[in-house]
Design goal:
about 325 residues; TIM Barrel; 2 domains; 11 helices
Length: about 325
């Protein structure tokens, strides 16, 4: 199994994609709106993927709520943006924390029923005034402890549904003045303790996603995704994260060079898995040929992530949970 997660071209698994996945099995596949039309189509696609992927491969989806949602009405429920949870928390802490857990559980139930086992949420970036809107209402709050507590509840709601959460974007995207989808942001501050706090508080979560951001105080040349110094000293060291570290999408404009080179560099820096979402068959082939097999440490981390979700899974009643969340946080 190759140390990469890749995207698909469209709503069906192409013969070339199936052949590639058999020849160079990825660690997982991530689906986007271009791959998802309605429940029947998605069920067929998931079934086809499971036929060609290895049993331990993951199916990942970006489903935060608000504007970042791949499963959308009318076929799937809408979820509030993270900032709505933060506003409730500011008024009533207990209600905000409960609503965060309920939201995570409901997102996880929808994703799990659709066939996904990894959900890229919660966002633990700070919602700072004046920063680029790429985070914006995706942030739970401005205050680090509020972000930490709300993010933890949302993550454990996901775990209660049987899904594995991915906290992002470590070591923090909240200060970025540029959207990393378009260009490479620089965060000049030497004091990033506040940005790290939510990740430190949640260092026991099973997955984390890197930030494509340059932090010159830590590494003057390489963004976090490609920085051995940041991954070793900050992510694994100062934060203490021991779970699966996946890159943000390597197709984003913050990074330069061919996709295969980006993937290889991210793994050399210490990421466990390279994420390439563009859905281009030939680029996927290049990435999967460039990356090594999943290493022993990564395999253990993946196994531990699956075990955490399995152990935390609860019998949940979606209708009851949805009614409770609606009382706390009306649509």
């Amino acid at each position: 199994m190759r140390a990469a997660i890749v995207g698909l071209t469209g709503p069906v698994l192409l013969p070339g994609e199936a052949a590639l996945f058999r020849a160079r099995p990825p660690a997982g596949v991530i689906l986007f709106s271009r791959n998802i039309e309605e429940p029947g189509q998605l069920a067929r696609l998931v079934g086809d993927l499971r036929q060609v992927l290895l049993p331990e491969a993951v199916l990942m989806v970006d489903q935060e709520g608000g504007r970042v949602a791949r499963l959308r009405p009318p076929h799937w429920p809408a979820f509030p943006p993270a900032s709505a949870l933060g506003r409730l928390y500011a008024q009533d802490r207990a209600a905000g924390l409960r609503a965060a857990w309920l939201t995570g559980a409901l997102i996880g139930l929808a994703c799990g029923r659709a066939g996904f086992d990894v959900v890229t949420a919660p966002v633990l970036d700070l919602g700072l005034p004046g920063a680029d809107a790429v985070v914006g209402d995706r942030a739970l709050a401005t205050e680090p402890r509020a972000v930490a507590r709300l993010g933890r509840e949302l993550a454990f709601g996901l775990i209660a549904s049987g899904c594995q959460p991915v906290m992002k974007h470590i070591p923090g995207h909240g200060r970025a003045m540029v959207d990393s989808h378009r260009a490479l942001p620089r965060v000049e501050s030497a004091d990033l303790a506040a940005d790290l706090l939510p990740f430190v508080y949640n260092a026991d979560l099973p997955w984390a996603m890197t930030a494509h951001i340059l932090y010159p105080h830590w590494d003057a040349e390489n963004p976090a995704t490609l920085s051995e110094a940041i991954i070793r000293r900050i992510v694994r060291g100062r934060v203490g994260f021991t779970g699966v570290l996946v890159t943000d999408d390597l197709a984003m404009g913050a990074l330069a060079g061919p996709p295969a080179a980006r993937a290889a560099a991210s793994l050399a820096a210490g990421a466990d898995l390279a994420l390439y979402c563009a859905g281009d068959v030939e680029a996927n082939r290049a990435v999967l040929e460039a990356v090594p097999e999943v290493g022993a440490k990564t395999a253990v981390r993946l196994k531990r992530a699956r075990a955490m979700a399995a152990a935390g899974r609860q019998a949940l009643d979606a209708a009851r949970l949805s009614a409770e969340r609606e009382r706390l946080l009306p649509a």
